Amino acid sequence: QVQLVESGGGLVQAGGSLRLSCAASVSGRTSFSSYWVAWFRQVPGKPREFVASSTSSGTPWEDSVKGRFIISRDNAKNMVYLQMNSLKPEDTAVYYCNADRDGRNYWGQGTQVTVSS
Fold this sequence. Notes:
The protein is mainly beta. The chain has no helices and ten strands. The protein has strands at 2-7, 10-13, 18-26, 36-42, 49-54, 69-74, 79-84, 93-101, 104-107, 111-116. Strands 2, 4, 5, 8, 9 and 10 form a six-stranded mixed sheet that branches.
């Protein structure tokens, strides 16, 4: 069982930066490091879309955020981060942290990011 809590969202002007955090609480014998983790985002009325994930083999990126967003994780602290730079109004969305292992999928409650033009 994993509980995820996102934080760090807010209002920022275009061109600015935000750092989102996702704190994971893991119960049982599994360690947080064994989970695939990712960030998604969702705009009202649209499907939730993949933003980025952190895997042992690299960091896949959604094209629109390549070169602007950086994902990282600290397994010792059970944390996942999303550094967002050069933000654009189209990045406005609720951002969700996601963890998955062996088909068990977990979501946080989301954090709102609003980028003003």
